[in-house]
């Protein structure tokens, strides 16, 4: 047999490397990391169009998906070890599939919490940016009519909206596209009372 295992040990490829060790298989290891650009290049994509690791080539047969690889290797080579890693009966095999599908479908998405949270944070961040940009557009429009929100002078309306757009919050918000909002916020926060109270409670 000639087995090649693509993927770094610090990825799901560890599952394949572990299975190869269980079965005592010899293999060539190509330790691409999960972010190796080669995963997205034609040569590797010809092996696995998803461009992910682990991927194996076993005597010319190519396979990806870590748990599918484990099923394949265990079924093909499992009898080399005792007791065998792959059940001999249809019922035993069905139990193997059941636990594999359960592990992948019901467990992995939730234990992979960090990646999940990262995706969610990115998605929520994008949605939040778009919503804030719309709201700032509304404010920019209102401030095109006069210097403050409901009169030509500072009122509690300005006070309350400026409170929501506090300096620590707007530090994360791009105001360049909203010059009137930016100037109005400066007018609000440069008021003597605002400066004094912020100075008093600074730190
Ligand atoms: N369900 C697949 C997931 C494969 C996967 O996402 N692998 C990661 C490394 S653990 C990867 O290759 N990421 C690179 C990418 O998605 O571009 C499996 O179990 O093999």
Summary keywords:
binds glutathione, Glutathione S-transferase Yfyf (Class Pi), Chain A, domain 2, alpha+beta, Glutaredoxin, 9 helices, 7% strand, 4-stranded mixed sheet, 203 residues
SSE blueprint:
Layout lengths: L2 E4 L6 H11 L4 E3 L11 H4 L9 E4 L2 E4 L1 H12 L12 H22 L1 H33 L10 H9 L2 H4 L8 H11 L2 H9 L3
Parallel strand pairs: 1-2
Antiparallel strand pairs: 1-3, 3-4
Helix pairs in contact: 1-3, 5-8
The chain binds glutathione (GSH).
What does it look like?
This protein has 203 residues and is α+β, with helices and mostly antiparallel strands. The protein folds into two domains: 3-87, 3-Layer(aba) Sandwich (Glutaredoxin), CATH 3.40.30.10; 114-200, Glutathione S-transferase Yfyf (Class Pi), Chain A, domain 2 (Up-down Bundle), CATH 1.20.1050. The chain has helices at 13-23, 42-45, 66-77, 90-111, 113-145, 156-164, 167-170, 179-189, 192-200; strands at residues 3-6, 28-30, 55-58, 61-64. A four-stranded mixed beta sheet has the order 2-1-3-4, covered by helices on one side. α1 (13-23) runs parallel beside α3. The protein is elongated and about 85 Å long. The termini are far apart. The relative contact order is 0.07. The mean pLDDT is 92. Bound molecules: glutathione (GSH). Glutathione (GSH) binds next to α3.
